[in-house]
Amino acid sequence: MFRISQYMAEIASPTPLGPKRNPPGPVVIWNLIRRCNLTCKHCYSISADKDFPGELTTDEIYGVMDDLKAFRVPVLILSGGEPLLRPDIFDIAKRAKAKGFYVGLSSNGTLIDDANIDRIAECNFDYVGVSLDGIKETHDRFRRMDGAFEASLAGIRRCRDLGLKIGVRFTMTQDNAHDLPGLLKLVEDEGIDRFYFSHLNYAGRGNKNRKDDARHQLTRWAMDLLFDTCWEYQQRGLAKEFTTGNNDADGVYFLHWVQRRFPERAAHVEAKLRQWGGNSSGVNVANIDNLGNVHPDTMWWHHTLGNVRQRPFSQIWPDVSDPLMAGLKQHPRAVKGRCGECRYLEICNGNTRVRAQQLTGDPWAEDPGCYLADDEIGVVSSGERLTVTPYTRINRSA
Ligand SMILES: C[S@@+](CC[C@H](N)C(=O)[O-])C[C@H]1O[C@@H](n2cnc3c(N)ncnc32)[C@H](O)[C@@H]1O
Ligand code: SF4
């Protein structure tokens, strides 16, 4: 996750570099249930409105939670499927809060209504994130349910009105990019605290529908718009958080933006970005799915490291006998192609390994989602060597 607003603030008020602080344990995104009332086109969990047998019981979840606490996990993001479809969701959330976790709820928002809003508020979530993948019909088409936009927006307003910290999450593809300006306006008009921009990742239905991925020019346009908007909001004193996910090249693109707009701050921002260190799947981000399988992050459901029913998370996570985990934890990562040659590898850490793996079979190949040009990353010429687009397999010429 790249925190745009945090690095943007370094332009107006630079802070000392200081030593790098590593979090005590990974942030755990926990898909507590796979069932969902929606069937979105891009869904990595391939959720649907049916039961998925074998999910962790309440008691099992409490046992895992105790282990996560002892392992010094600081943050739990309760996700799904649609987490509000779990009858015990409020008990789980309250117990997690009582144990001292920072607890986020990741919801599609359509089920936040007058009947449950007080129970949601009682949980005292540190953050509620609701997905909006466009305005009105765009969102409804993407999420494949008529009326989903109005229902999600109503859910957002209910949370906001009770003082919960609320964010909008947007996954951009070619189908919904045109609504990005409208969504940014909505964030301002509705008094929403955070905007999370997610690049499409190649997992689940998002892998099947990767042809809808935004082309690189569109991604660059979106990033410029996000940076300009975030800067403008900060100038106006609007305290809004802007973050991005699933493409750590955003940090490098941001550095280029700073070099153009505020060259006098570029060296400072670059030092801060190097300290951030880019992609942290398998290191500072972890995933537990509805069946208790542990993955390096939410996009790696096709690669399981172990199951919490057989072995505690605290033992699975540090175990580097799995080659993927060993590679993800290696620093710097042994990435190939233009990622390996990139001058800014230390900033983005080789980006999103699952996209490389889905397109080439090799998790250490260059990430085809990198939208910077060769001359922007100090790669002299990839010329004939590689042909990379999100739509073709990587061809290596002799
Ligand atoms: C799987 S959903 C679960 C929570 C809830 N049902 C929702 O839709 O917000 C969590 C987040 O992952 C995003 N997501 C799902 N598949 C994705 C993909 N292939 N690439 C990027 N983001 C994805 C969703 O848009 C949503 O914001
Ligand atoms: S992205 Fe969320 S709302 Fe959409 S199908 Fe997946 S779990 Fe459900």
In short:
Its cofactor is [4Fe-4S] cluster. This protein is α/β, with parallel strands linked by helices. It is built from 16 helices and 13 strands.
Structure description:
This protein has a single domain (2-321), classed as TIM Barrel (Alpha-Beta Barrel). It is built from 16 helices and 13 strands. The chain has helices at residues 4-12, 58-70, 89-98, 117-123, 137-143, 148-161, 180-189, 205-208, 216-235, 249-261, 266-276, 313-316, 323-329, 337-341, 345-348, 353-360; strands at 2-3, 27-31, 75-79, 102-107, 127-131, 166-172, 194-199, 241-245, 285-288, 293-295, 306-307, 386-387, 395-396. The strands form two sheets. Strands 1-8-7-6-5-4-3-2-9-10-11 form an eleven-stranded mixed β-sheet. Helix 1 (4-12) crosses helix 9, helix 3 (89-98) packs parallel to helix 4 and helix 10 (249-261) runs antiparallel to helix 11 (266-276). The protein is globular. 47% of the residues are buried. Bound molecules: S-adenosylmethionine and iron/sulfur cluster. Residues 36, 38-40, 43, 45, 47, 80-82, 108, 143 line the site of iron/sulfur cluster. Iron/sulfur cluster (SF4) is lined by residues 36, 38-40, 43, 45, 47, 80-82, 108, 143.
